[in-house]
Amino acid sequence: MNPVRVHIFVSGRVQGVFFRTETQKKAERLEITGFVRNLPDGRVEAILEGEKEKVEKVIEWARKGPFFAKVKNVEIINGNYKGEFKEFNIIY
Asked: What is a single molecular function from GO for this protein (predicted)?
């Protein structure tokens, strides 16, 4: 296993389009841990931890998002794997 930690910020029309729910579903299917939440500035933030290849699949999905989303940018900040999450949650 090659565990990684990635912090992403997704901008565009990403709130009110089920972005968090669909991110959670995708992450859980791929056994990724972490969280996703809306930010006051209209972006969505997520921390993803898991196998590198699986995390990359979530990031690729986030570049398009769910059907009604219009993603303009995905900012990616690589970090050190911490293993601090037991599951993937939506933070409200």
From this structure: acylphosphatase activity
